[in-house]
Amino acid sequence: IASGGGDNRIQVYREVMGSTSDSPKFALDAAVNTLHGDVNSVCWHPWDGSILCSGGDDGKVQLWNFQQS
After folding, report:
1. Which residues contact 29 (CB under 8 A, 6 or more apart)?
2. pLDDT of residue 36
3. Which of 27, 45, 33, 28 lies closest to 6, judged by CA?
4. What number of other Cβ atoms are within 10 A of residue 34's Cβ?
5. Residue ranges of the chain with pLDDT lower than 70?
6. Do 10 and 41 contact (CB within 8 A), yes or no?
């Protein structure tokens, strides 16, 4: 899961062990400060789960490459 907000950051979360559909559990996996200003939208690439797209108050679209270690 990825989120963006008024703090100029993108945060990526991963599901952790013990998570269920009735009680989902996530941990912060990565956080990135952007130059967007407020981050208004984030969307994962439909075929490549390591690429995230973001858009913000600056009117620009940025691509990010998140590799899980």
Report:
1. 12, 13, 14, 68
2. 87
3. 33
4. 19
5. 69
6. no
What global pTM score does this model have? 0.83
Residues contacting 7, CB < 8 A, separation 6+ = none
Ramachandran region, residue 57 (left: φ > 0; alpha: ψ -120 to 50; beta: rest)? alpha
Q: What is the dihedral of CA 54, 57, 60, 64, to 10 degrees?
A: -20
Separation CA 49–CA 7 (nearest Å): 24
Copy the structure tokens of residue 30.
């990565």
What is the distance between the alpha carbons of residues 35 and 58, in angstroms, rounded to a whole number? 8
Kindly give, in sequence order, each residue whose CB lies less than 8 Å from that of residue 41, ignoring residues fewer than 6 positions away. 4, 54, 55
List C-alpha distances in Å: 47 to 4, 15, 29, 31: 21, 20, 20, 22
